[in-house]
UniProtKB/TrEMBL annotation:
The keyword Lipid metabolism does not apply. It comes from Paenibacillus aurantiacus. Residues 54-218 form the Glycoside hydrolase family 31 N-terminal domain. NCBIfam families: PRK10658.1. The keyword Hydrolase applies. This is Alpha-xylosidase. SUPFAM superfamilies: (Trans)glycosidases, Galactose mutarotase-like, Glycosyl hydrolase domain, Putative glucosidase YicI, C-terminal domain. It holds the Pfam family Gal_mutarotas_2. GO terms for molecular function: alpha-D-xyloside xylohydrolase. InterPro entries: Alpha-glycosidase_related (IPR050985), Gal_mutarotase_sf_dom (IPR011013), GH (IPR017853), Glyco_hydro_31_C (IPR048395), Glyco_hydro_31_N_dom (IPR025887), Glyco_hydro_31_TIM (IPR000322), Glyco_hydro_b (IPR013780). It comes from the Bacteria. Its EC number is 3.2.1.177. CDD domains: GH31_N, GH31_xylosidase_YicI. Residues 260-573 form the Glycoside hydrolase family 31 TIM barrel domain.
Amino acid sequence: MKFTDGYWMVKEGTTMHHPIEVRDIRETADSVTVHAACRNVQIKGDTLNAPLLTVELSAPRKDVIRVRWTHHAGAKAAGPNFELFPEAGFAPDIASDAEALTLTSGGLSLKLSKQGPWNMSFTNYGKYATASSQKRTAYIQTKEKQAFFREQLDLGVSERIYGLGERFTPFVKNGQVVDIWNEDGGTSSEQAYKNVPFYLSSEGYGIFVNHPERVSFEIASENVSKVQFSVPGESLEYFVIGGETLKDVLSNYTALTGKPALPPAWSFGLWLTTSFTTDYDEETVNSFIQGMADRDLPLHVFHFDCFWMKEYQWCDFEWDPSVFPEPVQMLTRLKDRGLKICVWINSYIAQKSPLFAEGMEKGFLLKTPSGDVWQWDMWQAGMGLVDFTNPAAVEWYKDHLRRLVDMGVDCFKTDFGERIPTDVVYYDGSDPVKMHNYYTQLYNKAVFEVLEEKLGKNEAMLFARSATAGGQQFPVHWGGDCSATYASMAETIRGGLSLGLSGFGFWSHDISGFESTASPDIYKRWVAFGLLSSHSRLHGNESYRVPWLFDEEAVDVLRRFTKLKSALMPYLFGAAVEASTQGLPMMRAMVLEFPEDPSTHALDLQYMLGDRLLVAPIFRPDGRVQYYVPEGRWTNYLTGETVEGGKWHTEEHGYMTLPLLVAPNTLLAVGANDQKPDYDYADGITFELFELAEGVSAKAPVYTLGGELLYTAEAVRSGNRIVVTAEGAGKPWNVRLAGIAEASGVEGGQTAAGEQGLLVNAAAGSQRIVITLAE
């Protein structure tokens, strides 16, 4: 929200109160409270008739500093509040002298000037990060008598801002106005399904504004050298988050707001859906599944969209008997084919649903201030909303899901959750404005808890559309309603990369677009992008998405990339484990992996998949692609060609290839199974070695399907000698040297011909292979 009229003036009728001078400082063992006058106090009378602002400074975790501003403290503290995870027993270091107070948390320090103009600056591991200086913090009253708190933090020359949720606008947020307010706006507008009041700076720090209500950001817009954020009310709380690297900052942020759960390995396979408004029954479903099998197209999850329930009755959680008369038997037949099952739900109860009357009678639905059930006709006729602040309503909702899981359902697509009204009353008295964004957190949490309860830890996953800060704990999320165009494919990737820099580890999208039907060209290009994403789903609106409806080549493309993803699962699952433990996204903006390379800072049409694979999807019908490669000698995994880094490349590709580059000094774990994503990764695994430099150690972890580390393979080169160890390997394993055709000697294994490099099969029981390269 803008409060000024240009640089010099404020809007007519607006009053701003800034902290001018420090009046007193109170220290405890773990916090500091500062009272700041809003005018220079020269005589005692200057203390009258003016606000006194309070700022509390503390540190809930290492490398995190909390700043809380308050004007009037007497307002009733209504929830909800983001759930935070402080570090037990942690306390910052506090030092003070006549000139300044310093509060230090790990490598992050806040320095508050005691003398002269107001200044509060932050240093991150010895490097200046940002500051709030004179007339930047403000308590504001508008001509409409509304109160706001505003902060403006320094934005350096060439500094770029990222994140703020899944945003489809330009990837670099400088120059944008962003309101944190969940809306159902598709992927082609400034609205967003997943709004997160956290941003990441290219200068190596992050800011989390701890308010679930609407937070307004002005990023180099109202003041072009500042990042401004404001909230309505009498207080403002934010966290400055540091770390030695951008990855550390993201890890520290997700430590504060919650790490992503590890999705089950089967979820990384290919998903096929009924699509939305198409006609389907068990015969149609079986025709799709059999059609995939007949064409050697591995399929792993089948999803039933909305019309598995009877029209006008969403949600009643009952299979439409006119279409699916034997749902339990049908699900059994599908699961006998090795498929997992997902069904669509939302948190709305249509008036025609038998559950509406029950929910109304028991007080399980949101109410208006007059005590009536809140209803409207958007989406479902006469629908109400489940009140997830009512514990009894939560259990009621969960019981219906438990019944579906007992039938054979493995996961739920938790659609909607954005259009949440603010003129309602919640069971627990929550502030309805704060609940607008936070509602989705309670909704997804309830569904996730059912799946974890019924299926076990690391077997629970959602396919969720809406989210806010902390929502990363309940993966997976998908990008919402995109269109069947290259432009929409590009906006989709921007949204996913922004979400990844907002703490979300796993993300998907509707391959070839939800709205309309893609051309065969777009379908095939999007398939490659989709199968090189965290999660991969074929889904649409009014038409089916099976490949043979596009053309026969689409079948071949889908087969190639589905099998490729399954083979890459040992590596990809390692990236998934890292996402769950470190909070790093599987699909990473280039700046996250290469922050020291300024050429990566604005890249939003390519990404890293994990830390070793670079993916550059193709957005043109002629197959032409331009992409940037960081320093080093990279290798196209699909073609074996090497690519020199430190510059841009322009190439043309058919539908079977794209730039999928392996970073130098990579030991890539590749599995022996290209038919499914959930298999014993250690059995027959091949460690593919790429461009290993002298003295460098390349490592590849191998995990169980439960996310437990089995062992870590390592390759080290000394001159023309390469040693690969796999200590702990109890099953057959291999090594492939990419780009190297022969060796003069091998110890611990036998050589075999390989298409893209020398293949060495480890001898039985061997955990060490020594390869001497030919001179």
